[in-house]
């Protein structure tokens, strides 16, 4: 029963952590005179991507960097197609212009760059360095935007309020990261007990479990009326996963995987981002969320079909 206990506590921690983090993030943004979306795209995105980073570093050291690539691509699909799809299905989102210009552009470039680097079937250490360099360039652009906003907003907040917000956000992030680990452990053990294929578990259960912090924080942000925090967290997490995590993994141990193996995940990732791209007025509509959920359902069906082929179940029915 430990597996079910892990799963239950993971869900509870995710809900509580998401609530604490969103309240803290909005307070920090107000205290430091910057947009809440920037906190989501940086602090939250990094913290909620730590499960993927842990998987990536351990996989690279163990000589299995392909696992890190699979988890990063799978998590990015979950972030956009499933998590953002659910948030949008509840109601549309108004995306800030700086988010569209900066974060969406880089998020769309991530799968394109990955596909180009995989044309030779290898993400080398040099390729990894290039990916990390692009990530740092994006991060510096976010930092510059934050400094620009601080200069515009001259109001100085109370120190006590500032530190209270930081403590809330830190406590929330700790619970969110812990929830991801608990959910992955519990759900993976349950899936194995039911005889699910390991590839399918990685592409669905592990990817969804490591993305649980993003799901919790995004839903709580929607509930509290701070959509920019949830959107920033999702886009930032995709950039962290696709550039920093994959790049660091390749620098530790080059990733040898063909474009044919990753092509479907890259194509789904690009399609999902295009489906969510804001309209001319900066609005991401509810209907776009419905299409995203349908896309994710199609991806899951594809994963199941591939798993059945791998295990030879289809051949047994012939």
Automatic annotation (TrEMBL):
Subcellular location field: Membrane
Protein name, UniProt field: K+-dependent Na+/Ca+ exchanger related-protein
Origin species: Chlorobium ferrooxidans DSM 13031
GO terms under biological process: intracellular calcium ion homeostasis
One GO CC annotation: plasma membrane
Entry annotated with the keyword Transport: no
Domain Sodium/calcium exchanger membrane region as annotated: residue spans: 5-142, 165-304
Record keywords: Membrane, Transmembrane, Transmembrane helix
Molecular-function GO term, any one: calcium channel activity
Record bears the keyword Transmembrane: yes
InterPro entries xref list: K/Na/Ca-exchanger, NaCa_Exmemb, NCX_ion-bd_dom_sf
Membrane topology, from the record: Multi-pass membrane protein
Pfam name, any one: Na_Ca_ex
Main location: membrane
